[in-house]
Amino acid sequence: RKEVEQDPGPFNVPEGATVAFNCTYSNSASQSFFWYRQDCRKEPKLLMSVYSSGNEDGRFTAQLNRASQYISLLIRDSKLSDSATYLCVVNGGYEYNNNDMRFGAGTRLTVKP
Amino acid sequence: DTGVSQNPRHKITKRGQNVTFRCDPISEHNRLYWYRQTLGQGPEFLTYFQNEAQLEKSRLLSDRFSAERPKGSFSTLEIQRTEQGDSAMYLCASSPNTGQVPWTNEKLFFGSGTQLSVL
Predict the structure, then answer these.
(1) I need a surface site. Which of A4, A87, B27, B50 has the fewest CB within 10 A?
(2) Any CB–CB contact under 8 A between A101 and chain B?
(3) In this structure, are strands A70-75 and A60-65 parallel, antiparallel, or unpaired?
(4) What is the pLDDT of residue A96?
(5) How far apart are CA A64 and CA A50, in angstroms?
(6) Chain B residues with CB-CB distance to A under 8 A?
């Protein structure tokens, strides 16, 4: 089983649609969770952190379910500029020396006019 | 520009040659990561440093790969006896993470990467 798994998509949605991405992780000791965005031929950039209580940043909402080892990202009112690959990122766990950051394969989103 | 800098941007080499890439992180960042990314995949973890100490190296990484961060500032990634399967984008990222709980400063800041093509 991969450490971080995502639905690869692609997701093709019209402008204004709501779209949700899912991510599962295998290491129950993981403590930190993030969503990154990567545009074509560009480096990944942090979109948002994911907190236990869930968090929202404008049109973006992230949720964490520790029991199911599951993370989600919801995008409301999709814009053309949201077209990108969304990467789920999970850290290695408690230990100081095991705090690496593992990426999922990414979910590709295309928002169409 | 105070972002993460990687050099070169592109490297074309023949199979069997050695290559070295350089990464200059954001100056006050303690952690430095190396990733490899191929088309359609997410970044694959290679190794990371806390200051000059190499804390973890992916078990998937062969002995042909080595990384250093001698003074806790810039880092180099060397690939010896390159193979065609090494062709990928090599990404460097830095983080202000000091290793303290909670890991509130784990945000990664990526460079633009070095695209390696092995012929």
Answers:
(1) B27
(2) yes
(3) antiparallel
(4) 45
(5) 7
(6) 33, 35, 40-45, 48, 55-56, 91, 97, 99, 102-103, 106-113
Contact yes or no for A72/A62 (Cβ under 8 A): yes
- Per-residue pLDDT reduced to its tens digit, B44-94: 989 989 888 888 777 667 899 999 999 889 999 999 999 999 999 999 999
- Residue type for A105, please? A
| pLDDT (tens digit per residue) in A30-74 | 888 999 999 998 999 999 989 888 899 999 999 999 999 999 999
Choose among B88, B99, B84, B90: nearest CA to B67: B90
Long-range contacts (CB closer than 8 Å, 24 or more residues apart) made by B1-9:
B2/B26, B2/B27, B3/B109, B3/B111, B4/B92, B4/B93, B4/B94, B4/B109, B4/B110, B4/B111, B5/B111, B6/B90, B6/B91, B6/B92, B6/B111, B6/B112, B6/B113, B6/B114, B7/B114, B8/B114, B9/B112, B9/B113, B9/B114, B9/B115
- Mean of the pLDDT values across residues A17-40? 92
The nearest CA of chain A is from the CA of B82 a distance in Å of 23
Tell me the nearest-neighbour CA distance from B77 into chain A, angstroms: 17
